[in-house]
Design brief:
single chain; mainly alpha; 2 domains; 6 helices; about 65% helix; flat
Amino acid sequence: MPRCKRLFEHTGCDAIMIGRGALGNPWIFKKVITYLREGIIIEDPLPQEKIDLAITHLEMMYKFKGQRGVIEMRKHISWYLKGLKNATSIRDMINRIEGKEEIIELLESYKGLYKIIVLILLTNIKDAQIMKLPLERISVGFS
């Protein structure tokens, strides 16, 4: 976000182009606008929120384009999941599924994985604090 502000200040431009940075990252617009107006950096959404938005997007595409929208959404869902744990295997499965409900079911299951990861991480942090371990040594154990 600071880079966007520097562009405006350095070049005096009227606008900036975000382009491919918005693929699977539609909240980037709000993040940029908030930073430019208020100087506040908004945190990225949680993995569960990204998955929820992917499901909403899938449902909207299905309503708009029918089955063709489900096929088109595969690449968008991949962008939403980019950088999340175990996303590669989930993307591979999604690219083989043709039904909207099956994709939603898979995404909901994947979202449940993150709830488990958070619980494990919180438990590990609590244990680490009791044992006075540095937090950077805590590992969830998923790759």
